[in-house]
Design a protein that fits this description.
Length: about 375
Amino acid sequence: MASCQPNLTTCIWPSVFEFVEGNISVSDLTIKATAIPPTQPFVYAGASLNDLYEVLGFTGQYPTDVSIDRIRMEGMPYSLGAFGYTVENGVHYSGDFPRSSAAFDYYFLSGSFTVRSSYFENVGLAISQDAFSTSSQITIGGSPSAGNHIKNVLGGLDIEASEKSVFEISYNESSGSSAGMWVSHTWVPFVPSSPSRYFIHDNKFIGTAQNADAIYLYDEVPPYIQAAVWNNAAEVQDILSEGIGVYYTKGTAVWNNSVTGTDGYDGIGLWSSTFDAVANNNVSGFTVDNTAGLAQIYLDPSTTNDLVVCAERSDSVLNQGTNNAIIGCQQSTASAASAEDARSAARAASATRRSLPRKKPLMPQ
């Protein structure tokens, strides 16, 4: 699949607005993408689709500084959409500007991206940063008066691989059927040369469907996520879900968060992590499913050198890793058989979550 400049004939990237480079400010705007079909048909993975790739897209070769304030964006559920909505990406800051006709040969996008005091409903991914992002300052919310509100979407905050960047994500309320928010690998073959820093605090994240996380961080090797996650409310509204999932990270800190849900896998899960710290989180409002559930705080067999400090001695912890320190918790004393059952459940849960649509579909040419 080759890159191409978007046009209306041979390369269709259906967007409402596409901004290329510069200092861009968008404010006090309402956009409703509720028509069926929203675009002319295009083919992706053998299927004919009629949806918008993005409503507000920002890309370019040179530094691109974007400020978005007080916008309202609405799509609608749509069975022929790639993510089940008429809109795939609401606000989209992405390094996907072609440098040549070679596949995935894009210019790196740098600059700043700020989204404040805005509302999103019925879109695939509401606020999205992805693909070949470097040396950027990303602010979503940022102050008590600037938080964004997101509901009835697949993924609320879609944050993907970047390098040498700083993220401030705070004071938002975001719910999604896959997750309220994620930091994950991107949809193009891009491995960051150095990590980015993520400051995630004072938000409310909600997973609305089964197997959804309220928030998850999904790193790769070598790690590119340096994250601090604190003072958030993480809620799951369906069974067999996870409050905060932390995958493959090194040195992530998760503290003073509140996690609630019923009949879930785990409130906070550490998966193949190392040197992570989980401290003083309120998980008393999270109940574990009595058949497939793991614990309020779970460390899988591949975790090493992690630290867990419980807020209450009654908080349940299942530690299957090595050299982890568990302090002030009610540790599981599962038998070998039940521990193996837990491992099997963990592998199944992890495989299910990893199979969720956490990447963008590649654009057809």
